[in-house]
């Protein structure tokens, strides 16, 4: 009677792990380094904690070596059950749960890009910008133009490897008016924006 009750409770525990409220545990993908608890209701001598090897495999008595990495707990349970089936008169009831989850490495934050904005801007000098910052955004971060800026002759100077440096001259007003798309150019490390001073009567 106690064995039947124990089997019933164990099956209830597994069933609850599949309910919508426990979806995270059910959909979790097993990774190398995780520790799984494997329980066989019909033979508790097979119960044990197993470490998922770097190749995604685990070793279970009678079932042998099985690949479970990348799969869900339900898929691992199904594979173990299938591997044990020949050793039992009836299909065994297997419970697989997570004891320890390997720590997931956090992605490193990208370092800011160093660019220069010099000449007739309100805050000239070195500025640090995030990846994908555009030319227009960099000019804005430099405080915008002074009253003496020659906005029709703004330069983007970009390193070009063995070719030295390439210079792109553009009219800022045309960018604002939609006649030039250079304003959406993303800044690259070492870029320099040069805003010259207006000439007399310019």
Description:
This protein is of the alpha+beta class and 202 residues long. The chain folds into 2 domains: 2-100, wza like fold; 113-195, Outer membrane lipoprotein wza domain like (Outer membrane lipoprotein wza fold like, Roll), CATH 3.10.560. It contains 5 helices and 10 strands, in the order H-H-E-E-E-E-H-E-E-E-H-E-E-H-E. It has helices at residues 2-16, 23-27, 73-84, 135-141, 172-176, and strands at 35-40, 48-51, 57-60, 64-67, 94-100, 113-119, 125-129, 154-159, 165-170, 192-195. Mean pLDDT is 85; it is low at 1-25.
The ordered string of helix (H) and strand (E) elements is: HHEEEEHEEEHEEHE
Under CATH at level 1, the class of the largest domain stands as Alpha Beta
- Distance from N terminus to C terminus (CA atoms, Å) equals 99 Å
Q: Please compute the radius of gyration using only Cα atoms.
A: 32 Å
Average pLDDT score: 85
Give the tally of structural domains: 2
Q: What is the CATH architecture annotation of the largest domain?
A: 2-Layer Sandwich
Strand order of the largest sheet: 7-6-10-8-9
Structural class: alpha+beta
> Could you name the ranges where pLDDT drops below 50 across 5 or more consecutive residues?
1-25
Profile the largest sheet. 5 strands, mixed
- Under CATH, the topology of the largest domain can be stated as wza like fold
What share of the residues does DSSP label as strand, in percent?
25-35%
What is the assigned CATH homologous superfamily of the largest domain? wza like domain
Compute the number of helices: 5
Name the helicity range. 10-25%
**Cα shape:** rod-shaped
Total beta-strand segments: 10
């Amino acid at each position: 009677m106690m064995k039947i009750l124990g089997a019933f409770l164990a099956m209830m525990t597994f069933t609850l792990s599949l309910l919508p409220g426990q979806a995270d545990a059910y959909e979790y993908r097993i990774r190398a380094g995780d520790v799984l608890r494997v329980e066989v209701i019909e033979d508790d001598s097979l119960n044990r904690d197993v470490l998922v090897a770097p190749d995604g495999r685990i070793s279970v008595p009678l079932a042998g070596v099985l690949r479970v990495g990348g799969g869900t707990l339900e898929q691992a349970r199904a594979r173990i059950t299938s591997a044990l089936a020949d050793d039992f008169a009836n299909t065994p009831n297997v419970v697989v749960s997570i004891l320890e989850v390997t720590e997931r490495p956090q992605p490193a934050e990208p370092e800011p890009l160093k660019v220069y904005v010099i000449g007739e801007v309100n805050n000239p000098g070195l500025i640090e910008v995030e990846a994908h910052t555009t030319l227009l955004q960099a000019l804005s971060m430099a405080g915008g133009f002074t009253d003496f800026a020659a906005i029709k002759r703004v330069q983007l100077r970009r390193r070009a490897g063995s070719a030295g440096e390439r210079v792109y001259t553009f009219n800022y007003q045309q960018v604002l008016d939609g006649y030039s798309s250079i304003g959406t150019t993303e800044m690259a490390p070492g870029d320099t924006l040069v805003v010259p001073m207006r000439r007399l009567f310019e």
